[in-house]
Automatic annotation (TrEMBL):
GO terms for molecular function: ATP binding; glutamate-cysteine ligase activity. SUPFAM superfamilies: Glutamine synthetase/guanido kinase. This is Putative glutamate--cysteine ligase 2. Its EC number is 6.3.2.2. It comes from Actinomadura craniellae. It holds the Pfam family GCS2. ATP-dependent carboxylate-amine ligase which exhibits weak glutamate--cysteine ligase activity. Belongs to the glutamate--cysteine ligase type 2 family. YbdK subfamily. It comes from the Bacteria. The keyword Nucleotide-binding applies. Keywords: ATP-binding, Ligase, Nucleotide-binding. It catalyses: L-cysteine + L-glutamate + ATP = gamma-L-glutamyl-L-cysteine + ADP + phosphate + H(+). PANTHER family: GLUTAMATE--CYSTEINE LIGASE 2-RELATED.
Length: 394
């Protein structure tokens, strides 16, 4: 897959190991983590909420290198979080209810808070964003058109946010429901050109629904800063390997789209209402129920849509040498169930939300070699795990 680079942005929550509440200590965690060496091009960032942090990989050309970057980012942040007396967890939404946290500092964050008011009070959703390199903006827009039918299936496969406000919402991805409060969230429209895309974004800025042209809430877009397509359909990946699976599938979809464009095959114009229905169904059921077939426009088992996605990208995966590792990753994900399935299974046991927290902390570090240092000294649910702490939110 010559020329198709990729990178991943992962968002995480910082939680108190005693209460399970999100803790607004992102600035301290990022300052501590920033002292440690990182892979080339990898970075750490704040998010809107002071309870969240983000790790971005460098530009990678193969899955093995990307896996190393993903694991390194998680390990750095988890070690820094541990030193601050909190846990790093990868979940699309918090498990335990808490008062709305403060927002991170910065003028752009402040403008977002002013613009969207109550929508961002307590907003702490976390996603897994995959970037794949494309030649130019025009190609990026055309590729996104081809990705539109498959965004709900990527979401269903990644669903990892069943809890909202401390309760089981009945959804596999409550994150998507929270995001739907923002204007224009969901599947992007079909655009005939890069110019049409820019006009629409500029129009939304002029209408006041976007802060600036770098902001959209669509699940996929040409990146406003990088020569990439950015796919933002997935919930925060429970494990680094599940993030890697998303990257493999997204790169396969982009490569397949480029092949279609080279052959003169235009993307299907799936209707916006059907796309919205497919996104809702993926958020509601994950892989455990019906999905909406975007081309046939009726309900089918969600696992059938996963199989069709894999069939579509199989030649691209083979060309890149990704078919064997992607198949292994997918088999593991299907065997274990989605992150939402696993959170619910943990919650159903004797430990309740505390068991969910412990599982999430362990999964976040799975495969990084950081299980011991990150969890050493912690008794999940104990009242005073943090040095000098009481188990309550700072």
């Amino acid at each position: 897959m010559s020329g198709l680079t990729m990178g991943v942005e992962e968002e995480f929550l910082l939680v108190d190991p005693g209460s399970g509440r999100a803790v607004p200590c992102a600035a301290a965690v990022l300052a501590r983590a920033g002292r440690e060496p990182c892979p080339p091009g990898a970075e750490l960032h704040p998010e809107l909420s002071a309870t969240q942090v983000e790790a971005t990989t460098g530009v990678c050309t193969d899955l093995a290198g990307l896996r190393d970057h993903l694991r390194a980012g998680r390990h750095r942040l988890a070690a820094a979080a541990r030193a601050e007396g909190v846990l790093l967890i990868s979940s699309g939404t918090p498990v335990v209810a808490a008062p709305p946290p403060p927002h991170s500092s910065g003028e752009r964050f402040a403008e977002i808070v002013r613009r969207y008011a109550g929508v961002v009070d307590g907003y702490q959703t976390c996603g897994c964003h995959v970037h794949v390199g494309v030649p130019d903006a025009g190609t990026g827009v055309a590729v996104v058109n081809h990705l539109r039918p498959w965004l709900p299936t990527l979401l269903a496969l990644s669903a990892n946010s069943p809890f909202g406000g401390g309760r089981d919402t009945g959804y596999a991805s409550w994150r998507i429901l929270e995001q739907s409060s923002f204007p224009g969230a969901g599947t992007p429209p079909w655009f005939p050109s890069a110019a049409a895309y820019r006009r629409e974004v500029d129009r939304l800025v002029e209408c006041g629904t976007l802060v600036d042209s770098a902001m959209t809430f669509w699940l996929a877009r040409p990146s406003p800063h990088l020569p990439t397509v950015e796919v933002r359909a997935a919930d925060a990946a429970a494990t680094a390997d599940e993030a890697l699976l998303q990257a493999a599938l997204v790169r396969g979809l982009v490569r397949t789209a480029l092949d279609d464009l080279a052959a003169g095959r235009e993307a299907p114009r799936v209707g916006d209402p059907v796309c919205a229905a497919a996104v809702w169904s993926a958020a509601r059921y994950g892989l455990g129920g019906p999905g909406v077939h975007p081309l046939e426009e009726h309900r089918v088992p969600a696992v059938r849509l996963v199989a069709e996605l894999v069939d579509r990208v199989r030649p691209a995966l083979e060309e890149a040498g990704d078919l064997a590792p992607a198949s292994t990753l997918l088999a593991g994900a299907l065997r274990r169930g989605t992150g939402a399935d696993r959170q619910r299974r943990a919650a159903a046991g004797a430990g309740g939300s505390r068991a969910v927290l412990g599982m999430l902390a362990a999964q976040t570090l799975e495969g990084t070699g950081g299980h011991g240092p990150a969890l050493a000294g912690y008794r999940i649910g104990a009242a005073a795990n943090r040095p000098g702490g009481t188990g309550e939110e700072r």
